[in-house]
Amino acid sequence: MSKYQVNNTTVNALLSWIEEDIVAIPEIQRPFVWKAAKVRDLLDSLYNGYPVGYIITWQNPDAKLKDGTVSHGKRILIDGQQRVTALMAAIAGKEVVMNDYSKKRIKIAFNPIEGKFEVYNSAIGKDQKWISDISDIFRQGFSMFKFVMDYCEKNSEITQDQLNNILQRVLNIRHSSLGIVELAHTLDIEEVTKIFIRINSTGVNLSQADFAMSKVSVNDVYDGPLIRKTVDYFCHLIKSPSIYENLKENDKEFTETEEFKKIQWVKDYNTNIYEPSYSDLLRVSFTFKFLRGRLSNLVSLLSGRDFETREYKEDIIKDSFEQLHDGVLKFVNETNFKRFIMILKSAGIIHAKLIRSQNALNFAYTLYLLLREKGVHDAMINRVVRKWLVTSILTERYSSSPETMFDFDIKRFDRHSNPLEYVKQVEDGELSEAYWNNILPNNLNTSVSSSPYFNLYIMSQIYDKDYAFLSRSITVQQLIEERGDVHHVFPKKYLQANGYNNMRRYNQIANYAYTEQSVNLAIRDQAPNVYLKKIKEQIENGKLQIGEIVSIDELIDNFEMNCIPPSLFDLDANHYEDFLVERRQLMVNKIRRYYESL
Fold this sequence. Notes:
Layout: E1 4-10, H1 11-19, E2 23-24, H2 36-47, E3 54-59, E4 63-64, E5 70-71, E6 75-79, H3 81-90, E7 95-97, E8 103-105, E9 108-111, E10 116-119, H4 122-126, H5 144-154, H6 160-171, E11 177-183, H7 189-200, H8 208-217, H9 224-239, H10 244-250, H11 252-255, H12 258-263, H13 278-290, H14 295-302, H15 314-332, H16 334-346, H17 358-373, H18 378-394, H19 402-415, H20 419-430, H21 433-443, H22 452-463, H23 476-481, E12 486-488, H24 492-497, H25 503-506, E13 512-514, H26 517-523, H27 528-541, H28 552-561, H29 576-597
Parallel strand pairs: 2-6, 3-11
Antiparallel strand pairs: 1-11, 3-6, 4-5, 7-8, 9-10, 12-13
Helix pairs in contact: 2-3, 8-9, 8-13, 8-14, 9-15, 13-15, 13-17, 17-18, 17-19, 18-20, 21-29, 22-29
């Protein structure tokens, strides 16, 4: 059986289908992303009879009802949303929602004398040769006769017959032919998902989450649009609280719902640790509620698929939407979200830059919500979530095939009455002595300052409330919060002057330490044995030269906090490689103590 069929329709017919809800435009999270000039170009192509690409639709699979009858789903616009929205804006005069959720008219002007379309501006509005808004001539009740008379009276260079013919050509845009590719409703959901992602890959990047959002958006029966808006608005508010007023102004219907009341707390909340996208929110809610890791399964469940019989059933659709709705509300719950952020902070995660793996964060929140749902004691939840998050970073557990690992882990956490047992199983298998003695030291042998292992070291310093290198009052946490930078224990210029010209060598992360800028400037390009001699002198005579340390005990403690080997007092460039090896092991030891204390 053919996977699709190709038909032709007209612009007018397609817009009518949208108005009559025969074809549903999925309210994917993206507001209208085309620039106004692209809308102009679309109108110009239709005016000149150029092809504008195919519109692709797919009808939901027929779902069986409990009484034995069949429910025929709407057709979903799989590809062509931006073009259809552009046509509705330019021809029907509809407002579009912009990135900040304000509503705006995109006015396309037309110059009949030159046969030219342009985006409206104030200069065009003052020029009598231009029709300021092309949607005017498409409106019902538009008087062609009167308009032609008035226009030609102001513009003598064009005759009434010429203008009439040109305007008829503009109006014929409504009858321009459009190709419609209709995907068969019998297609497997996974295959439709692949088609959806592939045909959109050349435009704005879309994913399985986009397709899932499309499925959610078009189901009015089970509050799909309400779920979609809850997801969408929460994710935008947490990143840009300033859009709150636009949301209130432009979606008054949603602001009256309980869902809006449950997310409006975000406008007054500031966190840069975990700012989930709609994809993150969907993934966490789905994995937590359905105990599955593959987001393509959500599309199947929202379509009513029975994974055993491969049939589509209405009661599965209903149950899936209810579970997803509950999962979304649990995710955006103020108490849940803020408690999760507090758990992250308690593990030394105070800034988003300390966590490169969004997948690790997503699973950590998934795990938090699951354990909360299962009624696990708060203290146990705190410990398990902290420890598992660090475990997953140490082992890069979700760096490849994350959906497979999500699926594997969530099922096992669900089965264990004591979640720490599963953490211990993974720990015994993947964090052996060989890991701490060989693998992690080797992972620290890198020049990438954003390395997850260096970040873990920094997290351990924050956790231990350590002072910055050669400081007695400024902590590592304070420097990170104030956007401080890491500096070199063996100064970069000093190493370069002594033959270390390869940045991968002098920028080794084992040569990095968070340091006050004033300390770094005082050290300049001196060898460690030189600048540390000056610190010894200031301890003896009380005259500060570098930093503010004034006792040998403070200096020893500071070395331990920053994993600096005592041998540094006597080191110069000839000992640099030995220093790196020694410091890496000290950093490993600190990370291990940190991990074991969580």
